[in-house]
């Protein structure tokens, strides 16, 4: 409705203007006729002049019409040209085709097309500018990383998606460049350190480029990074090889120093080469080994004997049996030659490797042996009657230590058994100590210990029985009381204050019945009866005799033991079966 009203108004105004123009033209012609008549211009001239006015007005209108028609033509051409350019730009910018609004005049259409065209030209210019910037950045990264440029046509207007992909690609490439550069700097630093340690100068063009002061000049391609790592690996391998060689030289030098008894002064003079592994240190170590080897050859006998001493120590550390030791026949050869020395050195190397391979087990066995020796010593002291004279508190400490060892030794044996089983399963052989299995060796030690304990117990019982028989037959000889009583022996005053004996305890005293002195003499036996299992392993030739002794002294011994336990408030009971069995458990 609005447009129709505007159109109607426009037509109305056009008609008004046309009517006014016609009226003005008529008034103008009438005025001209009046002027011509007043002037007195003849009729023919007035007609002529009226024709001229008509021609002039007609020409002027024709000129105006032509100009406006030309304007229309220009507008049409402009619109057509803009349309063509817009279509091309839409195709280049990969945008949908431009569509004109309905109901627009030529002027509006031309203006809209021209405005749209300017906007799209600016978009094209901006995209091409972005593409140029990205391409410059791409060339820089390609030069640094030796890569191929991004696949894009630099002469064609890129789409927004292409520009975004190009930008993401370059961002990723920049991050990769930073990573490679950091890796290059780190690896280069290690390479410089290795070359400095090896005292080596760059030889190839690649090594020269790596060692160059300009880090940015190095091409960060994947091949170069791989070659860089390979170079570092080679240098580190050479460095490690040299350090191992130097370490081997130092070990050899130390052994030769000890065997040749080189003075401490000469050793200290060479000490600077016993730490670092540079080229000069390597050469000095190598020269020292050659010098010492020459000295070794000049003193084969003393050197071989020194190696034999080392072999003997290793045999002991490895628990070699005599049979295993005798297997090395060269040990007893007195024809000292270079070949004999080589055999001894090879044996040392074999023993050292054997010890290192089984070090954990050997240390465990050594620990068990040390604990076992300490246990035997403490057990011997526990059965020594003179230990009661000690007033320094060592008796209690030794007893606690002995009990701890007696409890921990079987635990250590179980741990070693597990380790030995694992070792034998992995190595498919038997782990021997002194030529026999470890557990058999342990069992043998325990059996020997128990046998000695039983032997001592049997001897004490025989001695006690014999003494008891003599007392029963001949009585107890009178003795002058000593001024100092044995620790733990009750005084006569204390004996009078003890509580009554329990019922059923028979006090059958033979002879003159001097019970306290009999207790003094039997104190060792009583202590032994409380600390030793009551199990006696009797041999066939002693079984009957032991039975006879017990039958003779049974009542008196029982009386003495019970009396002593009662006086000192000990429970009057024999060791339980579990206590007896505990001594035989591992």
Description:
By secondary structure, this protein is mainly alpha-helical. The chain has a domain at 305-385 and 395-472: Methane Monooxygenase Hydroxylase, Chain G, domain 1 (Up-down Bundle), CATH 1.20.58. It is built from 19 helices and 2 strands. Strands 1-2 form a two-stranded antiparallel ribbon. The protein is elongated and about 205 Å long.
Primary descriptors:
single chain, Methane Monooxygenase Hydroxylase, Chain G, domain 1, two-stranded antiparallel sheet, 19 helices
Helix content: over 70%
Task: Tell me the β content.
Answer: under 5%
What CATH architecture of the domain at 305-385 and 395-472 would you give? Up-down Bundle
Q: Average the pLDDT over all residues and give the rounded result.
A: 76
Low-confidence stretches: 477-557, 564-586
Instruction: Briefly note the structural class of the backbone.
Output: mainly alpha
Biggest sheet architecture = 2 strands, antiparallel
Name the helix and strand elements from N-terminus to C-terminus, one letter apiece. Answer: HHHHHHHHHHHHHEEHHHHHH
The gross shape turns out to be: elongated
Assembly level: single chain
């Amino acid at each position: 409705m609005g447009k129709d009203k505007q159109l109607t108004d426009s037509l109305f105004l056009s008609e008004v203007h046309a009517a006014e123009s016609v009226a003005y033209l008529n008034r103008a012609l009438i005025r001209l006729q009046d002027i011509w008549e007043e002037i007195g211009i003849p009729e023919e001239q007035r007609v002529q002049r009226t024709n001229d006015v008509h021609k002039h007005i007609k020409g002027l209108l024709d000129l105006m019409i032509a100009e406006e028609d030309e304007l229309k033509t220009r507008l049409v051409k402009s619109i057509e040209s803009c349309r063509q350019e817009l279509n091309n730009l839409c195709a280049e910018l990969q945008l949908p085709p431009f569509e004109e609004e309905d109901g627009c005049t030529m002027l509006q259409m031309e203006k809209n097309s021209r405005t749209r065209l300017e906007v799209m030209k600016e978009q094209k210019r901006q995209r091409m500018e972005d593409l140029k910037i990205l391409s410059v950045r791409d060339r820089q990264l390609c030069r640094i990383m030796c890569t191929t440029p991004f696949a894009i046509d630099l002469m064609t207007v890129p789409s927004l998606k292409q520009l975004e992909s190009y930008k993401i690609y370059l961002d990723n490439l920049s991050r990769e460049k930073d990573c490679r550069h950091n890796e290059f700097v780190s690896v280069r630093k290690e390479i410089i350190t290795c070359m400095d340690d090896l005292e080596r100068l760059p030889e190839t063009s690649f090594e020269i480029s790596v060692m160059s002061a300009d880090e940015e000049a190095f091409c960060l391609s994947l091949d170069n990074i791989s070659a860089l790592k390979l170079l570092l690996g080679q240098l580190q391998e050479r460095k490690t090889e040299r350090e191992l060689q130097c370490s081997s030289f130092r070990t050899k030098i130390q052994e030769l120093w000890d065997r040749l008894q080189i003075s401490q002064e000469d050793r200290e003079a060479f000490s600077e080469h016993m730490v670092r592994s540079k080229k000069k240190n390597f050469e000095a170590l190598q020269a020292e080994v050659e010098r010492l080897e020459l000295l070794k050859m000049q003193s084969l006998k003393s050197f071989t004997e020194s190696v034999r001493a080392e072999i003997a120590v290793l045999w002991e550390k490895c628990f070699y049996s005599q049979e295993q030791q005798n297997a090395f026949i060269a040990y007893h050869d007195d024809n000292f030659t270079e070949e004999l020395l080589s055999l001894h050195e090879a044996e040392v190397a074999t023993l050292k490797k054997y010890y290192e391979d089984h070090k954990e087990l050997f240390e465990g066995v050594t620990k068990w042996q040390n604990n076992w020796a300490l246990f035997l010593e403490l057990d011997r002291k526990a059965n020594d009657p003179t230990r009661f004279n000690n007033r320094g508190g060592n008796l209690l400490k030794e007893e606690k230590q002995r009990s701890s060892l007696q409890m921990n030794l079987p635990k250590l044996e179980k741990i070693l058994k597990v380790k030995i089983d694992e070792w034998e399963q992995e190595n498919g052989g038997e782990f021997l100590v002194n030529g026999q299995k470890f557990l058999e060796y342990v069992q043998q030690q325990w059996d020997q210990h128990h046998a000695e304990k039983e032997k001592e117990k049997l001897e004490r019982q025989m001695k006690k029985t014999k003494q008891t028989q003599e007392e029963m037959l001949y009585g107890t000889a009178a003795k002058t009381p000593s001024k100092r009583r044995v620790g733990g022996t009750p005084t006569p005053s204390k004996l009078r204050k003890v509580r009554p004996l329990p019922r059923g305890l028979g006090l059958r005293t033979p002879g003159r019945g001097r019970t306290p002195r009999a207790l003094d003499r039997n104190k060792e036996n009583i202590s032994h009866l409380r600390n030793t299992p009551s199990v006696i392993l009797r041999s066939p030739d002693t079984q009957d005799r032991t039975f006879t002794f017990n039958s003779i002294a049974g009542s008196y011994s029982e009386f003495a033991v019970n009396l002593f336990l009662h006086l000192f408030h000990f429970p009057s009971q024999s060791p339980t079966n579990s206590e007896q069995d505990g001594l035989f458990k591992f």
